[in-house]
Amino acid sequence: MSVRITIAWLSQLWLLGTRVRLMTVCALILMCPIGVQDVVAQTADVQADSNQLAENIQANPGTESVEMSAHCVMANSAESDFPNSLVVHLVDENDGLVAAWYDGATTRYPHGVLGDDIEASELFVIANEAGTQCSQQVVLDDNEVFEDLAPRLVDMDGDGEMDVVTIISHAEKGARIAVFGYAAGDRSQLKLKASTRAIGTPFRWLAPIGMGDFNNDGRMDIAYVDRPHLARILRVVSYTESNELEEIASAPGFTNHRIGEDFISSGVRSCQGRLQLVTADSRWERILLTSVKETTLVTDDAGPFTGVDSIRAALECTD
What we know:
Layout: E1 6-15, E2 18-27, H1 44-59, H2 65-68, E3 87-89, E4 96-106, E5 119-129, E6 132-139, E7 144-146, E8 152-154, E9 163-170, E10 174-183, E11 186-195, E12 206-212, E13 221-226, E14 233-239, E15 245-252, E16 254-255, E17 267-271, E18 274-281, E19 286-293, E20 296-304, H3 308-315
Antiparallel strand pairs: 1-2, 2-3, 3-4, 4-5, 5-6, 7-9, 8-9, 9-10, 10-11, 12-13, 13-14, 14-15, 16-18, 17-18, 18-19, 19-20
């Protein structure tokens, strides 16, 4: 994980009807943590704001907030073991999560699916509280790691606060998706709000595709490929009112990652108001566009897979 290359760009998304401005650090070439890559903002003032925020966070985050609240910690993403995992979120309101990144390099889970045996054991976030930045930390147990490229910031439960979507792998149970966030009205501690079941076997991984309301039922969903090197099952889980991730659809025959690659070859495109999951087929021969209709996956063939550039082209709306 230590050498995974990342790039950044500014996107504008519409999540549950709310326009959200955000800058994300996205894994080369395709895996933007938020998942949707349909609109690139061109306004220089917004770009300048996002750049300044990222520079401020890396330069001196959390120092003023230590005196304000005992639940804040000292943190500096520039000194992180994984500085390229930094994700920055810009919102019009003053309060809420504005950044997240991984730290705490460890080799205690020697899977190497993302290119090396170095994984993260800590998650840091920065939240604005009454105009003051507060850094908080999640430290995993000794039998777990964040087997991931970068955290993803998205409001999963519709409460107006950003949540953090991560991948946690367990020494005996393998990978699961884990969503961290604040309880309503309480920013004193970042909590585990929801997670999928672990795969059940060590050294078994999953590769996220993206997040969105894929079946238009008003609830946010997470799409991922379960064991992209073995089972190759596309799964879609929905965030419920009881803070659970409930599977609503699944089908075999999909993949988005090869062992050793430090990027994920998939994404979500929004074309003519419709969200589609962009992946490869299980043989890496065809590009597949998949939409969710209620609890059914509907897949169209988008042409031959000829490398990551063909996935990138499929993410563009040309029809």
